[in-house]
């Protein structure tokens, strides 16, 4: 037994030696990480503590930028627009994506072809999608109002009205990202065991009861994964909104990202924009922590 312990000690010592020997190979990655991630964030915090406009000298103001944000009505409205947009852009793709996954999980002719067609919107770039939908939203020339007229409904202003601009932008998000949710839920359905379904059918359960008590609990972890992905993606949505509305009409669709962009690159108020970045980061982290906590609470079957 003592003889066997010696080689083990030698291996442990050798392993520690290998760790020190290979540690220098990690230095380039650490340097790159510090240069690309750590330094920009530290510099953003530094800028947020200054009154700094491009072409002018910076002045240290401490937390004045954050105090100003708390009183800025336009910024507070942008938070409301962001949360409103995010809530719709997460819930609706989850609902439609789950419904699509249930349909495509069944066996029917040309199922593979229809699946491929359904995920095509996800392959398009956001700017290209925004340009196409901008033409579709046109009140006089857009195809959406033409389709409404064919069924006897009045035309809508879509993104040209403050009351309908955010739901219209959510429509674009739903069309673009519902396929992603569908693919995630399909993975959950493919991994689900078949025994509970066989037992439920023997007991005479109907389709809704099977979905409510078997399918939904089984795919819930996958739905939470999709919710985390969609929430983070919807919170940082910029290109689609900027191309279609630019934050308009007025400020009706001005999310935090649009507000941040305007402060930094239209008004050149770098210090104030950096404070917006810090606050926005805190909001994203808080929501992500809540979603990840819910994800941890979900139990895999």
Structure, described:
The structure is a single chain. By secondary structure, the chain is an all-alpha fold. It has two domains: 2-48, no CATH class; 72-297, MetI-like fold. Helix content is 74%, strand content 1%. The chain has 14 helices and two strands; from the N terminus they run ααββαααααααααααα. A two-stranded antiparallel sheet has the order 1-2. The longest helix has 32 residues, at 73-104.
Which keywords apply here?
mainly alpha; 2 strands; MetI-like fold; 2 domains
CATH architecture of the largest domain: Orthogonal Bundle
Strand neighbour order, sheet with most strands: 1-2
Return the CATH class of the largest domain.
Mainly Alpha
Number of strands: 2
Q: Whole-Å distance between the termini?
A: 44 Å
A few lines on this structure:
74% of the residues lie in helices and 1% in strands. The protein is mostly helical.
Topology:
Layout: H1 2-22, H2 27-48, E1 50-51, E2 59-60, H3 64-71, H4 73-104, H5 111-118, H6 120-123, H7 126-136, H8 143-150, H9 165-191, H10 195-202, H11 207-235, H12 239-244, H13 256-266, H14 270-297
Helix pairs in contact: 2-14, 4-9, 4-11, 9-11, 11-14, 13-14
